[in-house]
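Incident log, structure service

09:12 report received: a user says their structure output differs between two submissions of the same chain.
09:20 pulled the input from the user's history:
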Amino acid sequence: MIERLFGWDQTHEEENFGRFFKAEETQIIATDGRDVGWVQERMEGASIFLCSLYVMPAFQRHGIGGHVLRTLLQRARAESKATSKG
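09:34 re-ran on a clean worker, output below:
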């Protein structure tokens, strides 16, 4: 999608990724024993920030991303935290 919208600059993408990606905030999304994506979320005080959500193209439009988001929202409600896109 980035390539289609903005063009692809490998150096820029690697630098940008290096600025925001934090392994300790990241979990692999798996379904039926297969890794199909990843989600990065950050806890800050009374908030949970959704940093990134990626699902492999072959597994998109199967409800996986929606399930991840619903789970995040349920956890935020259970922990009385606000949610935000960050």
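09:41 both user submissions now match this output. Likely a transient worker issue. Closing.
09:42 reviewer note: The longest strand covers residues 34-44. The helical segments are 2-6, 10-20, 64-78.
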